[in-house]
Amino acid sequence: MEYPFNEDQLAFREHLSRWVDERLIPRAEELDETSEFARDLFEELGELGYLGTKYPEEYGGAGIEEKYVYYTMLCEELARGSMGFAATVAMHGSAASHMLFEDGTEEQKQKYLVPALKGKMVCAFAITEPQAGSDAANIRTRADRTDDGYVINGSKIFISNSINADFITVVAKVGDGKGAKGMALFLVDTKTPGFSVGRKIEKFTTYCSDTGELFFADMKVPFDCRLGGEDSDFKSAYRMLTVDRIITAAIALGNARAAYDAAFEYAKEREQFGRTIGSFQAVQFKLVDMLATFEQAHLYTYHTAAMADRGEDVTKEAAIAKIVAGDGGCEICQKALNIFGGYGLTMEYPAQRYLRDSFFPLIGGGTSDIMRLLTAKRMGL
Fold it and tell me: Among 119, 277, 281, 361, which one has the highest count of C-beta atoms within 10 angstroms of its own C-beta?
């Protein structure tokens, strides 16, 4: 059962799917093995206009009205080819670029956002710290006001796109405020003195999506680098991060779809005891369960994206979408590897990559348990 896409959306998916089949899938194994950022493919997506899916035409975007449904389609299709590559694109188009679009100056948008949408610059969003993961209010990175701007000191960890980023949206403590009121966002050019990239963190998942540490040592930035002005806080970014959970659900969907398709084809070809394994009830039941899980997550994720396009509050729905797509996607990938049997444990088949990558959405953007806590609060518990 498909979400009721309109004619334009189906055309968008068809064109994008063709690019994924022809350009991304043939490179997926190589990117996984080398852990390299596919800058050429990233720039190609920018040239084709896909990186600007969520943005207006005046900045090189597509000017699409249903931007979240389209961006969900983009990230799902890319993840069908390579979740690592899709994660890079998703992080690039999340709060990193969106907060610049919402609160940056016109000069900043021309200098950073326009080339970012063309694929000429890479951006990242930095909030997590060694002592502050799910408890974001506990961050220690500070931005102290001076006569001519701010001085930022601190560190960040587990930051996607950090190794290749040209600019970063950094969350830092300001003043004496508590919670969201005591936090602000800063636009940081990675060439700024006092900024440095630490180690690249090796993960067992999404190899070609780089993750690393960032350090800020007496880094000076001008006043206009505080996005939203002197009175800004973290509330607007929190709303954007809520919507971003839909995108995390989308990459979980794409990876799960790839795993299901691979397992389905393998079940039709692999023979044991004189017949294809797909003719055995045990395998059939697994494939049926995989399809049922996928379609439930698919429908709910796009339902939530459509709500976001209508401007509705999706705090609960986005958290649920991330739960059902993330947890469900991981279950699908486990069943897919089981269908591949011994071959599923080898590097010759992609089942192991799908399963490894399926763990990324369980953590990225907020763990599944944090999503359950958010949902429980919205339920009045």
Answer: 361
Structure tokens, 167: 């600019």
In this prediction, residue 232 carries a pLDDT of: 78
The pTM assigned to this predicted structure is: 0.95
Instruction: Report residue 151: phi and psi, to 5°.
Output: -115, 120
Residue 175 pLDDT more than 90?
no
Q: Name all domains of the chain by residue range, CATH numbers in brackets.
A: 7-122 (1.10.540.10), 124-225 (2.40.110.10), 235-378 (1.20.140.10)
pLDDT greater than 70 at residue 1: no
Q: Which residues pair with 168 in a beta bridge?
A: 124, 188
The DSSP secondary structure of 132-167, one letter per residue, reads BSS-GGG---EEEEETTEEEEEEEEEEEETTTT-SE
User: Which are the contacts of 99, defined by CB distance < 8 A and separation ≥ 6?
Assistant: 125, 169, 185, 227, 236, 237, 240
Question: Pairing state of beta strands 123-126 and 167-173?
Answer: parallel
Buried b (16+ CB within 10 A) or exposed e, 5-30: eeeebeebbeebeebbeebbeebbee
Q: Are 78 and 18 in contact (CB under 8 A)?
A: no
Residues 6+ apart with CB under 8 A from 333: 255, 256, 259, 351, 354, 355, 357, 358
Higher pLDDT, 137 or 318: 318
Beta bridge partners of 171: 185
* Identity of residue 112: Y
Q: Which pLDDT tens digit goes with each residue over 226-274?
A: 998 888 777 777 777 899 999 999 999 999 999 999 999 999 999 999 9
Give the amino acid at 244. D
262, two tokens: 């691979």
Q: CB under 8 Å to 123, separation ≥6 — which residues? A: 92, 96, 97, 100, 112, 116, 161, 165, 166, 167, 168, 169
Beta bridge partners, 272, equal 275
SS3 call for 66: coil
pLDDT digits (tens, 9 = 90+) for 367-378: 999 999 999 999
